[in-house]
Design brief:
The protein is of the alpha+beta class. The protein is globular. Strands 1, 2, 3, 4, 5, 6, 7, 10, 11 and 12 form a 10-stranded antiparallel beta sheet that branches. It has a two-stranded antiparallel sheet with strand order 8-9. It has 2 domains: about 1-65, no CATH class; about 75-205, Trefoil (Acidic Fibroblast Growth Factor, subunit A) (Trefoil), CATH 2.80.10.50. It has helices at about 5-35, 40-65; strands at about 75-80, 85-90, 100-105, 115-120, 125-130, 135, 145-150, 155-160, 165-170, 175-180, 185-190, 200-205.
């Protein structure tokens, strides 16, 4: 029988994953509208909220799945619009922990422009090969993304068309964004996704 075929089960699961978010949202919106217009039981309203939660969970799972398709390796992280790449130097002093800015530059920086991307759970760790600092942020809007010696942030790396990617803070609408600096090198901060040129990066193998 068809449903005993493993390939059929995989196709069926894929179909269910693709159609469930649409179905859940439509049903939830219908139930909530009925409650506003004519009043329905609290249990139905609770069901609607649960469906919306499940829909968002499925969307999050799909984001995580897309992120894990990115191959680990050694890269330069380049903003194609500006032609600059990310660099991180060691922190000052002889005793850590060290924190230092990640800047965007066109200057050759040897190992300090090379980043090691390795899997971490459903995301990735991004570590500078020269400084040994990892890309880190506290996860709030406008916070800088820095190099940190004693901790790291798990990042999602999401396709953005062609060879382009967005670097996404998990479960928040915050992505790496080039922050212009009139008097010095540009830095990187977390900003909501807006489709801006400064929010797209390419990973060039080193």
């Amino acid at each position: 029988m068809a449903f005993l075929n493993p390939a059929f089960r995989v196709q069926r699961l894929s179909y269910q994953r693709s159609i469930f978010p649409v179905y859940a949202r439509l049903l939830a919106e219908h139930l909530l509208l009925r409650r506003r217009v004519s009043g329905i039981k609290a249990s139905d309203a609770a069901l609607a909220l649960c469906l919306l939660f499940l829909q968002s969970s499925v969307a999050s799972d799909e984001t995580n799945e897309n992120s894990r398709k990115f191959p680990s390796g050694m890269y330069r992280i380049v903003n194609p619009a500006l032609g600059t790449w990310a660099r991180n130097l060691p922190g000052p002093g002889h005793q850590g922990p060290w924190r230092s800015s990640i800047v965007m530059t066109t200057q050759f920086s040897s190992v300090y422009q090379t980043w090691e991307v390795t899997p971490d759970e459903e995301g990735y760790r991004i570590r500078n090969y020269g400084s040994s600092n990892s890309a880190f942020s506290t996860g709030h809007a406008e916070d800088p993304v820095i190099g940190f010696s004693d901790g790291f942030t798990k990042w999602y790396i999401e396709p953005a068309g062609g060879d382009n990617y967005r670097i996404h803070y998990p479960n928040r609408d915050l992505i790496w964004t080039v922050r212009p600096n009139e008097f010095s090198l540009d830095t990187i901060s977390l900003e909501p996704a807006q489709g801006a040129e400064g929010q797209v990066f390419q990973f060039i193998e080193s």
